[in-house]
Amino acid sequence: MGTHAIITLEQFIIEKEKxxxxxxxxxxxxxxxxxxxxxxxxxxxxxxxxxxIIGAIGGTNIQGEEVQKLDVYAERQIIDALKRGGxxxxxxxxxxxxxxxxxxxxxxxxxxxxxxxSSNIDVNVSIGTIFSVYHRKSEDGxxxxxxxxxxxGREQVAAGYFLYGxxxxxxxxxxxxxxxxxxxxxxxxxxxxxxxxTYPAKCNIYSINEGNYRKLFExxxxxxxxxxxxxxxxxxxxxxxxxxxxxDFHRNLxxxxxxxxxxxxxxxQGKLRLMYEGNPMAMLAEQAGGMATNGYTDVLDTDPVELHxxxxxxxxxxxxxxxxxxxxxxxDQISNLVxxxxx
Length: 343
Ligand code: AHG
Ligand code: MN
Ligand code: MN
Prior knowledge:
Layout: H1 9-19, H2 26-46, H3 51-54, H4 70-85, E1 88-93, E2 100-101, E3 108-116, E4 127-135, H5 146-149, E5 158-164, E6 168-173, E7 178-184, E8 189-194, E9 205-207, H6 218-229, E10 238-239, H7 245-255, E11 257-261, H8 274-287, E12 290-293, E13 313-317, H9 318-342
Parallel strand pairs: 1-3, 9-10, 9-11
Antiparallel strand pairs: 1-2, 3-4, 4-5, 5-6, 6-7, 7-8, 11-13, 12-13
Residues 71, 94, 113, 115-116, 118 line the site of one manganese (II) ion.
């Protein structure tokens, strides 16, 4: 019986730095900051079910301390850790209207969704934290400039997520593949558990809030109809959707599936945020051999115009995402023909 060497996240980071002579260690510091923060968040997440008996959210607990909403608490932990780490110039967060300056000399800009899937906290379903890292564009010591935070996803130098599930995981990429680490609570360390993750060749799962069906555009409707009813699909797909992007993405990455959050007739840009959800997941998908589109172009090529902008999102293996793009294109053409015919 063979034994596998245990590799801690720390050893993994050092090993990678050795292989990359340009590495200054400052990006690694950011990963360490995030790990520290999320270990504290994880502790609170695990106690989330006790909130009702130790104090209501937003009220005070029995020690008379303020109990914060978990997503605000998570944001605070991450911001504090990134500030202490010293390498982060500014941070953008789903929970804050504006960018926050942390270290005037920092070389990186970090984007966070501090707690993803927050509607699942109360019902004990997996949630996550998503992060994405960019090089700062402005000079050291200069003021924050739009070019620092309105960068294309293509410019990301790292992206990943923490998943607070049946176990706690970190999955991240620095642009050289995707690796997954699982927290061993007995020693408090993240251990390399999933090396070089790639999408399985076959896509068997689809994940979408299908309750929105009547609000979807025709191309997506027809794609769904195709995978559910066409004889060309030999083995029926499985539908899996919990409503936490991190959890749904993670399952599909390991098992082979597509995640869809399309635009709807009332919200053509969909629900998910480009900077905190779309771009980091898109980088992971690409690095795992898959693809991410907004239905028309690669998510990573979107030129952002606003910090909190939304994007339709389709993530999965290349073949599957290409297929849905084709459906969208064809049905756009048909509806254009119909519209022109009416004129
Ligand atoms: P957040 O908790 O950060 O606001 O994100 C929730 C997002 C995402 O995690 C999930 O996939 C999606 O909202 C679920 O939306 P629906 O309830 O519309 O399906
Ligand atoms: Mn989210
Ligand atoms: Mn969130």
